[in-house]
Design brief:
By secondary structure, the chain is α+β, with helices and mostly antiparallel strands. It has nine helices and eight strands. The strands form two sheets. It has a four-stranded antiparallel sheet with strand order 1-8-3-6. The chain has a four-stranded antiparallel sheet with strand order 2-7-4-5. The longest helix has 23 residues, at 119-141. The N and C termini lie far apart (44 Å). InterPro entries: cNMP-bd_dom (IPR000595), cNMP-bd_dom_sf (IPR018490), RmlC-like_jellyroll (IPR014710). This is Cyclic nucleotide-binding domain-containing protein. Residues 30-113 form the Cyclic nucleotide-binding domain.
Length: 187
C-alpha cells in the first residue's frame, strides 16, 4: 500500500527526496466503517491521505443538525488547516463511511515543515487550494442539475458507493431535490 502512496506523491509532483521524507513519518492505518477519525471539538494530531475507501466530514450543530463539509475518496488528502495553523479544535467531525486504508502523518511534522517553508508543505497547500477552488467553482457556477450531471460523469463509481442522502449533501442540495433531478433526468 505504501507503494501506491509513493506513486500518488510522484503524480502530485513530489521529488524523490520529498517522498522519502514523507514516508519516514507516514503510518499506514486501516479503519472499519463508521470509525471516527476526529471528533468535532478535538485538536487534530494527524493529517491523512486516503488510499482506499470513503470518508466524510460534517459540522454538527447544538440542535442536532448535520451539515456536510466534504467527502473524501481514493487519493484525497484530508487536512484540517485550523488545527494545523492555529492549533484549534476541529469545528467538524471526520469519519470513515466505508472501511478505509489511509496513510497518516503526524501534524507536528507538518507544523515543522510549515515553519521551515518546506517544499512538501508548500505542495500540500497548493494541492488543497486547487481542490477548494475547484469545489467552489463547482458549487457556484453550476445549477443543481448541472452539478448532478458533472458528478455522474466524473464519479460514476461513487453512484454505487454513496447513498442518495450523501450524494445530495455533496451536491449541496436536499435529498428531495436530488430525487426530483433524477426523475427529470430519466424522462
Amino acid at each position: 500500500m505504501l507503494e501506491a502512496f509513493k506513486l500518488q506523491l510522484v503524480n502530485h509532483g513530489f521529488e524523490p527526496q520529498e517522498i522519502e521524507q514523507v514516508c519516514q513519518s507516514a503510518q499506514l492505518i486501516e479503519l472499519p466503517t463508521r470509525h471516527i477519525l476526529l471528533h468535532q471539538g478535538e485538536v487534530a494530531q494527524e493529517i491523512h491521505f486516503l488510499l482506499e475507501g470513503i470518508c466524510h466530514s460534517a459540522y454538527l450543530t447544538d440542535k442536532g443538525k448535520e451539515f456536510s463539509k466534504e467527502f473524501y475518496w481514493e487519493n484525497d488528502w484530508i487536512i484540517g488547516f485550523e488545527s494545523l495553523i492555529k492549533q484549534q479544535a476541529s469545528p467538524y467531525l471526520l469519519e470513515s463511511l466505508t472501511s478505509c486504508c489511509l496513510v497518516s502523518l503526524p501534524i507536528a511534522t507538518l507544523r515543522k515543515w510549515r515553519e521551515e517553508k518546506h517544499s512538501v508543505y508548500l505542495k500540500l497547500i497548493e494541492t488543497q487550494l486547487m481542490h477548494k477552488e475547484n469545489k467552489e467553482r463547482f458549487m457556484l457556477l453550476y445549477s443543481p442539475e448541472e452539478r448532478y450531471e458533472i458528478f455522474c460523469t466524473n464519479f460514476p463509481d461513487l453512484l454505487q458507493r454513496l447513498n442518495d442522502y450523501q450524494i445530495a449533501a455533496y451536491l449541496g442540495i436536499t435529498p428531495i431535490s436530488l430525487s426530483r433531478i433524477k426523475k427529470r433526468a430519466t424522462r
